[in-house]
Automatic annotation (TrEMBL), chain A:
The chain crosses the membrane at residues 22-47, 79-100, 112-136, 142-161, 269-289. GO terms for biological process: phosphate ion transmembrane transport. Belongs to the binding-protein-dependent transport system permease family. CysTW subfamily. One of its GO terms (cellular component) is plasma membrane. GO terms for molecular function: phosphate transmembrane transporter activity. This is Phosphate transport system permease protein PstA. It comes from the Bacteria. InterPro entries: MetI-like, MetI-like_sf, Phosphate_PstA. Residues 75-283 form the ABC transmembrane type-1 domain. SUPFAM superfamilies: MetI-like.
Length: 297, 289, 308
């Protein structure tokens, strides 16, 4: 009797070990397949696009009829709009992050603000685009502009920056604050001189990720900035049309007028991936250096 | 350290503000002094897009102080964008100041006739079909003919590509090639695309597709099919044999002023009409009698 | 806060000469507080404006179109005065459901792999890579879908076009996969080590430990990850526009062109007048998206509330 139970147990044990083996191997399989797929996609984008990227392509004026045009104004607009949106959303986002982390009393108002941050973070980007479109085209009669695109985009960044600021500040140990107060500093002095410097790396990392997202955003720009540019390089006029590189990629592939539209799309994609890679590397650099040092010791 | 960061942020913001706003004002001020200056924004028809883009390029060469942005989505977006204020000039394949089948008239706009646009039925280059009659086209676009062998081609299902509502090419194709017959509106072999370029891409990439664009887009892997035995050429449009064409218009809010007026004048000049316009397979307005 | 109050009340100054300096200090202190408060309020104002604007414009559609027609009719022929949005609502729902069917199992497998199976060096490659993928612009995924996936689907299935729900959901799967994986990864990592150790000590295999102990323990986090992934899939516009086919019809199968809320809005908004029923209908669709995303937030809040 006992032996029977034992045998049963052994069989079950065996089958569950087999099951476990299958499970582990299939996890390896799934993970490596995803990894391979993703690497393949990234390499393909870079492979197709990188060889064609020249200084002329990066700074040249797009040519809509003959082959050989560049994406200069689009790349310029991408960076310009990104800067405008960051210039608007960084102070406000960091300010509200500080408020939530440092000042916010536990009351209805704070609850409302927190809900707003969460709500804003979940709003689909196309709705910011739609909002910008109506606001700047219909209400302010500005048309599709760089400025409008920048402002609409900053709304997209706001909740993200607020959240990373709040999280970064909350991670700071309370002793630091207490020490600062003990030395007679006011709250704002403590925040400026102690808390923000301590939270800075977290805020920068989070903001850089937000910038990544803003750089690649297309639905907002399409509606608030338009698909065109002023057609000249270094046009700082914020009232020009605000087409960016992602929009140009979309436009080039759907508007197959130029002979080399496909190459332009490929190269634009590669430029974007390259930019994202660079930003990511820059964020990770301090961590990598630290790891390297630890590994050396 | 904090001070550095602070002043750095302030400096960056100041630079952006300064460059952005003062420079922007600067450009506007400086250019106000010269004869032709300003900002032209053209939106609308993708059928006219090759033309407006070429014109913008040449116009900018002659008037370097003018910035011209050209984009296209569909004809109806032309007058809409002008009315909304998103563009200063709207391109449209019909006279939007008058009601056209399915579209009401836009009041307050002025139309400027700039070109004759010949439209063509297009198929993939490998497709053996050379000619389609009105009836065959009507049946294909109504979804009653579904296989290429029914019109003398290979045994393959026809992929019908249509432009979305609001396209001027669609309006003219329906009125002039299909003689106002109805389009199908759904089916697993049916697809609507937004722009002429997307139409070209869709037909180029699918050997069994049929679509239509203006002649300027017929290149690469697509070919134009004859209509009732008449080839789609500019010549046949001029001599009246090929009926599938329309006038193309630029629309402005009220009478055009400044750079907009100069630009329209430039497109209508005989130099442009008989030069680049002809090269792009459009027909000068003056040739139509 | 308490600490702050104490300091304020006790911040009398010993010497008279410091008074002016102290006052400017206090003013500065106050101004900074005001700036932070206004910034925070600004977010509320922005959200309020957006909801008000989109909602107010969107609800105008019901002046001309009955609620029944808008939500349940599949006839979207705005030029003929027929504004049935059911196609797009169904499209969005089925696209999201399909995407989740692909993405959730894959993401969970990957997350479990990262936490429980992968050796350290693999973890060090996988995690940054996933973070990188979150930042890749959606338009690039759409472009890859258009140039790689659709021809592939055409070849494999023999379908004549290839664009439709399947293509769109595959593109979205690749897009939301890193999001869901990273958050689930965090949730699984946060499961107390004792729990797993207890499971192993009782003789369970890794398979049993994962399914009976780790996943149930990490459930709130995984659910949050799923909902966030869903929110991203529902709101994604440009990548979907490129592969969905943009034709207002109920698709008979997964390879027939159709349309979803976002793609329809972005394709048509430029062509319509600001004060037309068509425009209002598009705004109503946007408002629907807003409502759906708000629902997602509420769901996340409930999950979080239960988890605590």
């Amino acid at each position: 009797m006992n032996e029977q139970i034992f045998r049963k147990y052994v069989i079950r044990r065996k089958s569950s070990f087999a099951m476990d083996k299958i499970f582990t191997y299939s996890l390896w399989l799934v993970a490596s397949m995803i990894l391979l797929l993703v690497t393949f996609l990234l390499i393909r984008i870079l492979w197709n696009g990188l060889p064609g990227i020249t200084l002329h392509f990066l700074t040249g004026i797009p040519d809509e009829i003959e082959a050989g045009g560049g994406v200069g104004p689009f790349l310029f607009n991408s960076i310009y709009i990104l800067l405008i949106s960051m210039a608007l959303s960084l102070p406000i986002g960091i300010g509200s992050g500080i408020y939530l982390a440092e000042y916010a009393p536990n009351n209805r108002l704070t609850g409302f603000i927190r809900t707003s941050v969460e709500g804003l973070a979940s709003v689909p980007s196309i709705i910011f685009g739609l909002f910008g479109y109506v606001l700047f085209v219909d209400v302010f009669q500005m048309g599709l502009t760089i400025l409008g695109a920048g402002i609409a985009l900053s709304l997209l960044n706001l909740p993200v920056i607020t959240r990373v600021t709040e999280e970064a500040i909350q991670a700071i140990p309370i002793d630091l604050r207490e020490a600062s107060y003990a030395l007679g500093a006011t709250k704002s002095q403590t925040i400026w001189k102690v808390i923000i410097p301590a939270a800075l790396s977290g805020i920068i990392t989070g903001s850089a990720l937000a910038a990544c997202r803003a750089f690649g955003e297309s639905a907002v720009i399409l509606l608030a900035g338009g698909t065109g540019t002023s057609g000249i390089m270094w046009d700082f006029n914020p009232m020009s049309q605000g087409g960016t590189l992602p929009i140009h990629l979309w436009y080039a592939q759907s508007e197959a007028l130029v002979e080399d539209a496909k190459q332009i799309a490929d190269r634009s994609a590669a430029v974007m991936v390259l930019c994202i890679l660079l930003i990511n590397m820059l964020i990770r650099l301090p961590i990598l250096i630290r790891d390297f040092r630890m590994w050396k010791h | 350290m904090m001070k550095n960061v602070k002043s750095f942020i302030v400096a960056i913001m100041a630079i952006i503000m300064f460059i952005g706003f003062s420079f922007g004002g600067f450009i506007a001020k400086a250019s106000a002094a010269s004869t032709v200056s300003g900002k032209i924004t053209i939106a609308g028809s993708t059928a006219l897009l090759p033309l407006t883009q070429q014109a913008a390029k040449e116009f900018k060469k002659e008037n370097p102080k003018v910035t011209v942005s050209v984009s296209g989505s569909s004809s109806i977006a032309g007058p809409q964008s002008v009315v909304k204020g998103a563009a200063t000039i709207g391109a449209c394949d019909w006279d939007a100041t008058k009601p056209v089948q399915g579209f009401s008239a836009f009041s307050g706009l002025v139309a400027h006739k700039i070109a004759v646009i010949p439209f063509a039925t297009i198929v993939h280059k490998s497709n053996p079909v050379q000619n389609l009659t009105t009836k065959q086209l009507q049946d294909i676009y109504a979804g009653t003919i579904t296989n290429w062998k029914q019109v003398g081609g290979k045994d393959a299902q026809i992929v019908v590509v249509n432009r979305k509502h609001g396209s001027g090419t669609r309006v003219n194709f329906q009125a002039k090639a299909l003689k106002n017959a109805n389009f199908m509106s759904k089916g697993d072999n049916y697809k609507e695309v937004g722009k002429s370029g997307e139409m070209l891409a869709a037909v180029e990439s699918n050997p069994n597709a049929i679509g239509y664009t203006d002649l300027a887009y017929v290149k690469g892997n697509v070919k134009a099919v004859s209509y009732n035995g008449v080839a789609a050429t500019t010549q046949n449009v001029v001599n009246g044999k090929y009926p599938v064409w329309s006038y193309g218009y630029l629309l402005t809010k009220g009478q055009p002023k400044g750079a907009d007026a100069e630009f329209i004048k430039f497109i209508q000049s005989s130099k442009f009409q008989n030069g680049s316009l002809k090269n792009l397979k459009f027909v000068p307005v003056s040739q139509m009698k | 806060m308490k600490l702050e109050g104490n300091i304020k009340s006790s911040s009398y100054l010993p010497a008279h000469g410091f008074k002016i300096k102290a006052r400017t200090k206090n003013v500065r202190n106050y101004l900074f507080f005001l700036f932070c408060l206004l910034s925070a309020l600004m977010l509320g104002v922005v959200l309020f404006c957006i909801v008000l604007f989109i909602g107010k414009t969107g609800l105008l559609v019901f002046k001309d179109v009955s609620v029944m027609e808008f939500f349940f009719s599949t006839k979207w022929e705005p030029y003929d005065g027929k504004y049935g949005a059911a196609i797009f609502i169904l499209g969005t729902l089925s696209l999201t459901a399909l995407t989740m069917c692909f993405a959730v199992p894959l993401s969970l497998a990957l997350a479990v792999f990262i936490v429980e199976v992968a050796p350290n060096w693999v973890k060090k490659i996988l995690r940054p890579m996933l973070d990188l993928l979150v930042g890749i612009p959606s338009i690039i995924y759409g472009y890859l879908g258009l140039t790689l996936l659709i021809p592939l689907l055409r070849n494999i299935t023999g379908s004549i076009m290839g664009d439709g729900l399947l293509a769109a959901s595959l593109v979205l799967t690749v897009m939301v996969l890193p999001t869901i994986t990273r958050i689930s990864d965090d949730a699984i990592t946060a499961v107390p080590k004792d729990l797993c150790e207890a499971a192993y000590a009782l003789g369970s295999t890794r398979f049993q430990a994962v399914f009976r102990v780790i996943l149930p323990a990490a459930r709130p986090g995984i659910l949050t990850a799923t909902v966030l992934g869903m929110a991203r899939a529902i709101g994604e516009t440009m990548a979907v526009v490129m592969v969905i086919g943009n034709t207002a019809q109920i698709p008979g199968d997964l390879l027939t062109p159709t349309a979803v809320l976002t793609s329809n809005i972005v394709m048509q908004i430029i062509d319509v007048q600001f004060d037309s029923t068509w425009n209002y209908a598009l705004y109503m669709m946007a408002f629907l998206l807003l409502i759906i995303s708000t629902l997602m937030i509420l769901i996340i809040r409930r999950i979080r509330g239960k988890g605590e």
